[in-house]
Amino acid sequence: MTTLATSQFETIAELARERWGLNLTDRKQGLVANRLGSFLRKSPFADVAEYLEHLKRDADEEDMLVFFDLLSTNVTSFFRERQHFDYLEREFWTPLARGNITTPNRRIRIWSAACSTGPEAYSLAIHAFEHLPDLGSWDVKILATDLSNSAIETARAAVYPRKMVKDLDRALMNRYFLRGSGEQEDMVKVVEPVRELVTVRRLNLMDAWPFRGPFDVIFCRNVMIYFDKQTRTRLVGRLYDLLRPGGILAIGSAETLSGLDTPFRTMQPSVYVK
């Protein structure tokens, strides 16, 4: 087991805060130590001290992204936190389909920020197919971003263990996933029409964003739990600016905008509207 001194953990926490806005509390020290131990056993570094010295003096961007992967947790699933998708069906897709609300030039833009390995973005795309008739006559694009290299690689491949979709309705399974065979029999792949709606990019939420929006819907779920209040406030303000009037923001069910200085209107727990 790798021993992580308090001073070393403080160095790691400071690097994570400066680079990515992460707020690593003391409770994370054991988790970070375990992950570092697994990494160091396969690395050329003799110990934690040597690795940290490399990060501070010699690391390039790819080295830092490997380090980020050690600190991040990619927990995700298809249609996770179903209440958000139910809200979209009721307040976005159905009114669009009925003509009760409109978008300029039938243009729809959705952002899955902190998309992890991609199930959230592909769930949003499947939702569009399910609830917006004549989807081909609409200009629908879904942007999926994450900082983790390993997560982005998986999201672009759109190949997942079959157990990740075992709880989905069988009809959805048959329509939107291809089953593997042979050595891939325990895997599924998202079908091409769904993949074509999704663009996957690597993005640090703390950096400048190379797009202007406006977005109709932003999912930024289960990421702000890693940020301090100041960072959350700044991020929420930037998300607000990127949404069109009436646009929807969904955050994780364990998160809240309560206590932040934000003009968002609360529609239901963890769902907000500009």
Question: How do the strands line up in the largest sheet?
Answer: 6-2-1-7-8-10-9
* Mean pLDDT across every amino acid position: 89
Fraction of helical residues: 40-55%
Q: How would you classify the helix and strand content by structural class?
A: alpha/beta
For the largest beta-sheet, the strand count, sense and barrel status come to: 7 strands, mixed
Query: What amount of the residues lies in strands?
Result: 15-25%
Indicate the overall shape: globular
Number of domains: 2
CATH topology annotation of the largest domain: Rossmann fold
User: Tally the helices: what do you get?
Assistant: 10
Radius of gyration based on Cα positions: 20 Å
Q: State the low-pLDDT regions, or none.
A: none
Q: Which sequence of SSEs, written as H and E, runs from N to C?
A: HHHHHEHEHEHEEHEEHEEE
- CATH architect. name of the largest domain: 3-Layer(aba) Sandwich
CATH class of the largest domain: Alpha Beta
* Cα separation of the termini: 48 Å
* Count of beta strands: 10
- Kindly report the name of the CATH homologous superfamily of the largest domain: Vaccinia Virus protein VP39
